[in-house]
Write a structure and sequence with these properties.
Length: about 450
């Protein structure tokens, strides 16, 4: 038997193997959106499956991990995927159908009648796929939705690879998927049960608004949200007409005050718009920790007014940005929402420092995550959070020269500057090529459905 001599050198131990990252993304700049607003130039993000493993300099990441796949984004900016806190995805199929109208006229004379004639499971599928394509191409990784046949929206969202907070709409009058509020509530409960354990879909219940629902139905939707601990999504104080109607019907109460008086507000409520609120309303929303979705483009286009964003921010209330549906915007580009949100606040307050670029970017990322009660999972690039991120080119003529990347993202960048979109660690778009949807087929289906809409509303 061979034995090692007393003076022999033992064989060297193999160096410990480095942890494996399923994907490493390297870029000229990484904007983390963490609490310290850390910016790395250059930077890198290591991903393991669905989760962010580490964020550091490229050399540090390469030294710590072995990559299964690497995306070198060159001089692009990598940042958290954008979070759209309010919308109606299938309504992209009504884009441009009726413009330059006040909200109530737009809804009652055009949108509600068009929906009555055209909304179906197929319509919802086709519209959601088109919306998903637009959002992937423009850097939105999480979106919030209120519509009908929400199970179809959930399936299309999951197939596209996006993250969605999706609310089955409940409204008092007959609609395409429910003839009564009770039927809509039953559909909402079935939807919640079907998707409550999904990795990408957060199911919700979506009472349309205080002015389109009875007290009993509003309370039933709130109870459903509490029963399953899911979000409750509602339109709130969008127009002066809404406020006047609620005051007339409910002894002078404001929409927020009326909902408070009946015990509607719950722990995961998201109120869209919140344009016409007073100081007492702000106190209610703050006390109840209601997330608010600010939709500057839709509010301007419909002349609904300007939300008191500066006051919302000063209160510390969870505030995010939304596009609203493309029927009233007319796009789903969150870069536009950031830019217009910042400029509208400056215009209304006569203060050029109101909602600076940094704040606008916060609203589209961590602000949205907080409004949706998802700040533990999304909104920033940090270890342990979901791997939702985008890479944005800064090479366009209008982006040259570049001094401040945050300023450029808000005041210069457009959705079509996004080059790569990653959700839950999966690459949905790389170098402007969408990998989870057949772009040509999605657009062809949408155009075919638009012909049916055009014929129906003549």
């Amino acid at each position: 038997m061979f034995t090692l001599g007393c003076n022999a050198t033992p064989p060297a131990a193999a160096p410990p193997s480095k942890p494996i990252a399923s994907l490493i993304v390297i870029a000229g700049t990484v904007i983390t959106q963490n609490a310290a607003h850390q910016v790395l130039s250059p930077g890198a993000v290591a991903i393991a499956g669905t989760t962010i493993l580490d964020v550091d300099t490229p050399d540090a990441i390469r030294g710590r991990y072995t990559a299964t796949e690497t995306i070198d984004a060159g001089d692009q900016i990598v940042l958290p995927g954008l979070i759209n806190t309010h919308g109606h995805a299938p309504m992209v199929l009504y884009r441009g159908l009726a413009d330059d109208l006040a909200l109530m006229e737009w809804l009652q004379k055009y949108i509600f009648p068009a929906e009555a004639k055209t909304v179906s499971p197929e319509f919802v599928r086709v519209g959601t796929r088109l919306a998903a394509l637009e959002m992937i191409e423009s850097g939105t990784t999480t979106f919030t939705d209120m519509y009908y046949f929400e199970e179809e929206i959930a399936r299309a969202t999951r197939e596209a690879g996006l993250r969605g907070v999706l609310g089955q709409t409940v409204i008092q009058f007959p609609v395409a998927d429910a003839k009564t509020p009770d039927e809509a509530l039953a559909r909402a409960e079935t939807f919640i049960k079907a998707f409550r354990d999904d990795d990408l879909i957060v199911p919700a219940v979506a009472p349309h608004a205080a002015y389109t629902l009875s007290r009993e139905t509003l309370l039933a939707t709130a109870a459903l949200g509490r029963k399953y601990n899911v979000p409750v999504l509602i339109h709130l104080a969008e127009t002066e007409d809404e406020v006047k109607q609620i005051r007339t019907e409910h002894q002078g109460a404001t929409p927020a005050g009326y909902l408070e008086s009946i015990g509607f507000w719950g722990p995961k409520t998201v109120a869209a718009h919140g344009v016409w609120v007073n100081d007492a309303d702000l106190q209610i929303l703050k006390q109840r920790n209601v997330g608010v979705s600010h939709n500057p483009e839709s509010n301007m286009k419909l002349a609904s007014g300007a939300a008191p964003v500066v006051q919302y921010l000063a209160s510390g209330l969870p505030l995010g940005l939304g596009t609203d549906g493309a029927a009233s915007n007319n796009d789903l580009d969150m870069f536009e929402a950031m830019r217009q949100g910042s400029m509208l606040a400056k215009f209304v307050t006569h203060d050029p420092t109101a909602v600076p670029a940094r704040t606008a970017l916060d609203l589209a990322t961590m602000g949205g995550a907080r409004a949706l009660a998802m700040a533990d999972r999304i909104g920033s690039l940090e270890k342990g959070k979901r791997a939702d991120l985008i890479a944005v080119s800064m090479r366009a003529a209008r982006q040259t020269p570049l001094y401040d990347p945050v300023s450029h993202l808000v005041y210069v960048t457009r959705g079509d500057d996004v080059q790569t979109t990653i959700v839950n660690g999966k690459v949905l778009m790389r170098d402007r090529k969408v990998l989870t949807l057949d772009r040509a087929a999605v657009i062809a289906d949408a155009n075919a459905m638009a012909e049916r809409v055009r014929a129906a509303v003549k």
